[in-house]
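User: Hi! I'm working on a homework problem where we have to compare a predicted structure to a textbook description. Could you give me the structure for the chain below?
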Amino acid sequence: MNDILNKTIVLVLNRNWQAINMRTPQEAFCMMATNVGTALEIEGENHIRPVTWDEWITLPMRPQDNAVQTVRGPIRVPTVIVAVNFARVPKKRPKLCAKAIRERDGNRCQYTGRVLHPDEGSLDHVMPRSRGGRDTWENLVWSGKDVNARKGNRLPHEAGLKLLKAPRAPKELPVSALIRNAHGVAEWKLFLNE
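Assistant: Happy to help. Predicted C-alpha cells:
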C-alpha cells in the first residue's frame, strides 16, 4: 500500500472547485493536516461534501476506497481536495514535444500541406541544428519524412521549400485543460472536461 502514497491520484481544485493540479496522497494529507486543503467526500454526483482533516481521519472505509495504514488504523485516501485559499486557475503552455508540434500543425506537412499519419511525419528544424537551430516552438514544424530528408541541413529556401505559415508557440491554456485522468479516477470526471 505504500506505493499508493506516491501516485498522483488526488485532484486539486481551487476554492471555486476548478481543477488546478494533481497531487500524491502524501501531499494531499499534508495540505489537509495544515488546513491548506479540504477533502471532498463524494458519493455520487449529488452528494459532494467538504470534510476537514479532523473529520476525515474518522471516516469509515468504503469498499471502493484506497487507504493507507497508520498506527491509528486505516485512513481513506481522498480523490479530490480543495485548496481553500487559492482562487485563480493557472495557465500553462503544452510541453514541447513531437506530439504537441504535430497537434499544433494539424497533422499537416508545413511545407506541402499534405495531411500525414503520425508515422509519415517527423520534426523538422526550420533553422537546422547544424547551423545553430534550437528546439523551440518557433523553430520546429511537422514535416513529411520525405520532405524532411530532401531538406536535410539546409534552410527551407535553399531546398526550394516554403513554409505554409510561420511556426509559433501555442497560447497558454488553463491548466485544467491539460490535466488528464491517467488512473481513471471516477470522481475526477465531475471536475474535468475530458
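For your comparison, note the following. The chain has two domains: 2-91+174-190, 98-159. The longest helix spans residues 25-33. Good luck with the assignment!
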